[in-house]
Amino acid sequence: MNSVLYSDKLIEVRDDSILIRKYYFPFGSRRVNLADIENITAYKPTLLSGAYRYWGTGDFHTWYPPDNRSKRDRIFIMVLRKKWWRIGFTVEDSQTVMDVLKNKCHLIDDSGTQ
Question: Whole-model pTM?
Fold first, then answer.
């Protein structure tokens, strides 16, 4: 059974995938299989980590959906296997998502808190 482990207005985490809502303009979502994820890193929001970027990319390497990340306590960067681009996203309850992802894929907490 493919149950929902976490869901909010920004993402949905299932047993086998992560759905990122509003990834494509103007409102298309993107589903990524957990098997295709090399790792996910959680960062504190800063200017360099994309805290004030609204939508799109600033470095042509990481793509962000519109998620108002300046008001979030973590920014997640997903590295996909055999891909040169990354996916940046935020969530409404970062601690719950971190707990879920620790059990599902390789999560790196680079936010300075453990």
Answer: 0.84
